[in-house]
Input
Amino acid sequence: MSLKKINFTREDLYQKVWEKRLSDVAEDYGITDDRLKKICNKMNIPLPYNGYWLKVKYKSDTFKTLLPELKPGESNSYKLEIEYRDDKDLLDRYKLLIEQEEKPENKIIVPSKFAKLHPFVSRTKEVLSKERKSSNGLLSVFRGQVLDMEVAPNNLSRAANILNTLVLELDKRGFIVLVGSSVDSQPITKVVFDDLDVEFELRELTRIERKLKERKYSFSKEDEYEKINVPTGVLKLEIKRFWSSGITRIIKDTKNQKLEDRLNEFIISIYRVLNFEANIHLYWEEQRKIEKEKIRIA
Output
């Protein structure tokens, strides 16, 4: 086991928990939202009130609780250590699979165009193309038997090609790809392998910009600004609901590499998550055998 150290600063964490949901911020750090909430309370960081994100979604009026001054004895920073598994814990099966992904001859190539998309990808692209842009400039779907994807209109075809390639490559490797079970299900991309499952999403990153507000009254003298989220063009693939910080969960566009060139890396991340889960199953199976033997001896 190894330790990963996370240094929280009060101002930075305050900005993050008001920019997106607590669970999403916690995922970025690789910890549970309950643990992050306790850290915020310890550092006297106010959290969004109940109903805040619903109001944001429907563009209702909201207010942001100001960060209070530090009280005597309170700290402006917090250090956290997280245990995670090293590569030495890789099971032989997953070690071999990862080695295959690392070979140059197995590099995944994303075609610029497909004659026919996978049914799941085709349906997702069609549904998204009919949606209006949300407040952050992205096309979003909240219900339906579609894959978990959220991108700007000008990136829809590119994202669909990436997702289509990934789905086909996972299928070649023996993964079962699943979406929601009904039209009322939330969008989900789930893959099953070795009786274990992993969920992931394809998203376009956004950034916060200042926008000049329209004046409500002609006699208003001062300009007012508001913060808005705008698309960046940067796409990412992210494994969801997984808390081990020793495993890379996010693969995205960088200055040197596009996401299209990093799909093998993402599949390796999936294998590492599956390996982690398999190790846990083996551990508890061993514990059950020990308990059973204790009972037999008694």
